[in-house]
């Protein structure tokens, strides 16, 4: 009996399939199996080659010791890559191998024959067929498309969102999975549980509608036009993906007319990184920003932000003077 255990291999000497001996192969035999202890496994490995892969037709068989007849023949095709063995993991059961009636062993020796055929038109090539399916667009819907339909058609709703006179049908599991605020509402003693309603105050109806669309689909129409309002809603309901999207849009759209409004939003909702970048923009473009309505509102009602910018600007000028004096 061989000493190899489960998943332990024997490797054959290297053999070749070309005259230059550049394509080198080896057989790996697992006497107690590679995936099943009751079977022996025989795998072929591409050890070295001119190119990293070769397509072959392979035949594995056992040569019977008395008449050299082939038995237990297994045929397969495979595109071999360097160092990736492939073959017959259940090549032959150990019971059949060891049975005297099958006469497969002589002096406890097993002879395996491996014949490799390499089609001439596929040597060292890889398949690059351009295959295309004609697929009906209705079969290519995404998850967001399905959720948009669920929201629009009020399917399987179990909660109502009330905003003023407007009513939206929604689903607690979706709201709670997207917003920690909604999750908290639904997890505690819900005062409005009997009616299955949630009242939202302080946010415009169209913003709530867009927020629900984002919760269900990760998209919202005309976000750029009301980005500050959506940012406020995202902060209130802790919709982190919508917060990030709003911050990105504000940085993309910032100009002399919007910078102060965006800065105020960043200050009110604790967006520190956004605030720092907007302050830098305003300092660099103060000549234009100072005439905007947003800056006038900022100076009148949030003077601490103006002083904060002046302090940063002063420190920057002082540093420039020190560097210049050196």
From TrEMBL:
A Pfam family this chain is assigned to: BTB
Q: Which Gene3D superfamilies match?
A: 1.25.40.420, Apoptosis, Tumor Necrosis Factor Receptor Associated Protein 2, Chain A, Potassium Channel Kv1.1, Chain A
Q: Which domain of life does the protein's organism represent?
A: Eukaryota
Please list the residue ranges annotated as the MATH domain. 1-116
Q: Which SUPFAM superfamilies match?
A: POZ domain, TRAF domain-like
Q: Which GO terms describe its biological process?
A: protein catabolic process
Residues annotated as domain BTB? 157-224
- Mind telling me what this protein is named? BTB domain-containing protein
Please report the organism this UniProt entry assigns to the protein. Bracon brevicornis
Q: In the record, what lineage is assigned to the organism producing the protein?
A: Eukaryota, Metazoa, Ecdysozoa, Arthropoda, Hexapoda
């Amino acid at each position: 009996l061989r000493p190899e255990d489960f998943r332990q291999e024997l490797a054959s000497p290297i053999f070749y399939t070309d005259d230059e001996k550049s394509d080198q192969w080896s057989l790996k035999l697992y006497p107690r199996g590679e995936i099943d202890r009751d079977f022996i496994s025989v795998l072929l490995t591409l050890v070295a080659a001119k190119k990293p892969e070769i397509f072959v037709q392979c035949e594995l068989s056992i040569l019977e010791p008395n008449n050299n007849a082939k038995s237990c023949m297994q045929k397969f095709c495979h595109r071999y890559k360097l160092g990736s063995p492939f073959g017959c993991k259940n090549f032959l059961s150990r019971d059949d191998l060891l049975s005297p009636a099958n006469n497969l062993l002589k002096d406890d020796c097993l002879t395996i024959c491996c014949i490799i055929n390499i089609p001439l038109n596929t040597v060292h090539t890889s398949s690059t067929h351009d295959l295309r399916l004609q697929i009906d667009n209705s079969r290519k819907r995404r998850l967001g498309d399905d959720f948009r339909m669920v929201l629009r058609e009020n399917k399987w709703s179990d909660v109502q969102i009330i905003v003023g006179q407007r009513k939206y049908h929604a689903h607690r599991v979706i709201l709670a999975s997207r917003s920690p605020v909604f999750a908290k509402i639904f997890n505690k003693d819900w005062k409005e549980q009997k009616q299955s309603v949630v009242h939202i105050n302080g946010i415009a109806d169209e913003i709530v509608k867009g927020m629900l669309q984002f919760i269900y689909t990760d998209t919202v129409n005309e976000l750029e036009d009301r980005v500050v309002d959506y940012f406020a809603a995202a902060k209130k309901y802790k919709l982190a993906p919508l917060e990030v999207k709003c911050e990105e849009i504000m940085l993309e759209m910032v100009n002399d007319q919007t910078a102060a409004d965006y800065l105020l939003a960043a200050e009110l909702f604790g967006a520190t990184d956004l605030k720092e970048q907007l302050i830098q923009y305003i300092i660099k473009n103060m000549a234009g920003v100072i005439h905007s309505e947003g800056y006038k509102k900022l100076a009148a009602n949030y003077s601490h932000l103006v002083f904060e910018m002046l302090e940063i600007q002063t420190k920057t000028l002082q540093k420039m003077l020190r560097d210049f004096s050196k």
